[in-house]
């Protein structure tokens, strides 16, 4: 056995080394490293969670800090997926439990965490149907009728997808299949998951494996299922989304003179940020939760400052949206809370 094959997950510098490999697009090196760790006695579960999952968290942080580009972040994610696939190819487990369908909600593209969950459950003896990213609700329901799983694991990483997550959860339960939810989009501690009708929530892959192994199906499950949560303010914001964005962009150009010198790429990026403001506002209105919006504003403020955009630009953008919603008290209160964060 070589020295390399005896390396462990506790080795100093190992995590930085793997991050460097995925960041440089070195698929061979990344696969070789996880294979050596497996040969050296590390469990595949710990390699998935600690090494691959840990590196993916750092990749997101480096992008947010403007140290990595979107292209580099995507390339690194692809290498992590290849390393995960290499681990899966080396670990065969005969199914001994039930059948689970794993999917990201419609519009959700962060598939690596769900792929890690899929492999963790497979190692725990489940028969896994991994549907991947961005699964439209009707297609998910068709799959359930075709395969009859015991449970659906549904991931939502971004709160703007909560209305679609609600629709998917409602459809799954109507088909007679319980749902375990996961992902940051369901809020701190999964606070929105049960409100949207999920039978359970798990903070990560390890917790999901334990929940499904020890207490599934849940006894006396009483999800707070609601057929529709959004009120008239939510409906107005969603229906008028294009106009809200266009008008806010015009106001922003007038009130933030630096925008007049923006190139097309910068203008497109600003329009995308404005769309996020409207979408997160709609999500906050949908579940009546201001924190969804204020968390988004705090995160966006940090990202924009890392890219050299002063806080005044975000403040003016928020005010431009708020000016169009003066007759909507809930939306106005949410936007005011967000603006206060930027003004600190």
Automatic annotation (TrEMBL):
Pfam families: B12-binding, B12-binding_2. It comes from the Bacteria. InterPro entries: Cbl-bd_cap (IPR003759), Cobalamin-bd (IPR006158), Cobalamin-bd_sf (IPR036724), Met_Synthase/Corrinoid (IPR050554), Meth_synthase_dom (IPR036594). SUPFAM superfamilies: Cobalamin (vitamin B12)-binding domain. Keywords: Cobalt, Metal-binding. Residues 97-223 form the B12-binding domain. Gene3D superfamilies: Cobalamin-binding domain, Methionine synthase domain. PANTHER family: METHIONINE SYNTHASE (PTHR45833). This is Cobalamin-dependent protein.
